[in-house]
Amino acid sequence: MRAPGHRRSARPAGSRRLRFAGPAWRALVASAFAGIVLARAAAAADGNLDAVASIVTDPDGSPLPSGWTAGAAAYAGTSPYRAQSDSVLAFPGAIYLTPTLMFLGDRVNVTVHYADKVRYFARARLRFGNLSPQDHPEWAGLKPRDWELEAGGGVQVLTPAGIVTARASSDVIGRSRGQDVIVSLDLPYIRERFVVMPSFAAIYRSSNLANYYFGGISRSEASPLHAYHDTGAMLSASASVVGSFRITRRWLGAAVVNYEHYPAGVRTSPLIGRSGGFDFLIGAGYTFR
Q1: Which among 52, 63, 102, 152 is least surrounded, fewest beta carbons within 10 Å?
Q2: Per-residue buried b or exposed e for 84-98, using 16+ beta carbons within 10 Å of the residue's own CB
Q3: d(CA 4, CA 43)
Q4: For 48, which DSSP code?
C-alpha cells in the first residue's frame, strides 16, 4: 500500500511510457517500408518485420500513426547471389495499420488475442521469387525460384528488457515446402516525435526453404556448370536499426539498416559466395486519417 498522500512520480517531459495498445497497431513505419522493399529485393531482414514498437497514446503526436500511409522510398542492398548485381532502386508504397490489422505491402498480420502484455497474431506473407534463369547466363540450367504464399502465427511479449517476438511460418502452396522460425528482441526508444529501435534476431529456415531461396542446387539441376549443393537447414543472425520521425502531423520519415550473417551452408554455395547481406532504406510518407 502507498503511504497517505503518496503520488506517482511524474515522467520526464517528452518521454513515453512503454506499453502495448491492443495488438501493437502502429508497427514502426520504417519496418513497414522495409517489408515492401526487402520483399522485392527478396530475402533480407526477415527477422525484424514482425517486430512492433511500444505504443504511444496520442496518434496526432505519435511518430507511429495509424491509418493509411503512402509514400516513396530509396533502397540499396546486396543481392544474395554472386551473379546478381547489388540493388539500388526507388519506388512508391503504402501501408495500413489499425488496432487489429497490419498490412505491410507483402504481408498481413492480424491479432487473434490480446491480454495484458502478450499479443497473439496470425500472419500471411507473399514471398517474392529471387532467381530467374533467363536473367543471367550463369544460371542456365537452374529452375526458377518463384514466389510462394506463407502463413503462420506468433506471439509478442513486452518485457523489461524489450519486446520479444517469436513466430513460425510455412509455405502453404507447395512451392518450397519449407518453414521458418524467428525469435527477435527489439529495444525501442520512444520520444515525442521519433522512435529508434535496435533489433536482434535468430532466424531458422528449414532445409527446403534454405535450398530453394538461398543457394541450393538440386541433383536434377547439377551439371558441369553447377555442382550439387545442399545448404542444409539454415540458422542465421540478423541485426538492424529502424527509426521513424514525425516531420509534421501528416508527414513522416523512416530509415532502416539491416545485416544478416549467413551460415556456412549458404556461404559455401557456388551461387552465393558471400558471408551475409546488407540493406539500407530511407523513405517518407503521408498519413491519411
Answers
A1: 152
A2: beebeeeeebbbbbb
A3: 58
A4: G
Q: b/e per residue, 27-60, with b = 16+ CB within 10 A? A: bbbbbbbbbbbbbbbbbbbbbbbbbbbbbbeeee
Grid coordinates in use for 133? Answer: 534463369
Q: Into which CATH architecture does domain 29-288 fall?
A: Beta Barrel (2.40)
> Cβ–Cβ contacts within 10 Å for residue 212, how many?
26
Task: Fill in the DSSP letter of residue 227.
Answer: -
The one-letter amino acid code at 244 reads S
Say if CB 182 and CB 204 are below 8 A apart: yes
Name the phi and psi angles at 210, rounded to 5. Answer: -65, -45
Domain boundaries, the chain: 29-288
Per-residue pLDDT of 100-121, as tens digits, reads 788 888 889 898 998 888 989 9
Query: Which one-letter DSSP state was computed for residue 289?
Result: -
Q: Give CA–CA dist 44/264, Å, rounded.
A: 17
Angle subtended at Cα 210 by Cα 179 and Cα 216, rounded to the nearest 5 degrees: 145
Per the listing, cell 506468433 goes with 154
Query: What is the pTM for the complete model shown?
Result: 0.81
d(CA 148, CA 25) in angstroms, rounded, equals 26
Q: Which segment, 77-91, 110-124, 214-228, is predicted with the most confidence on average?
A: 214-228
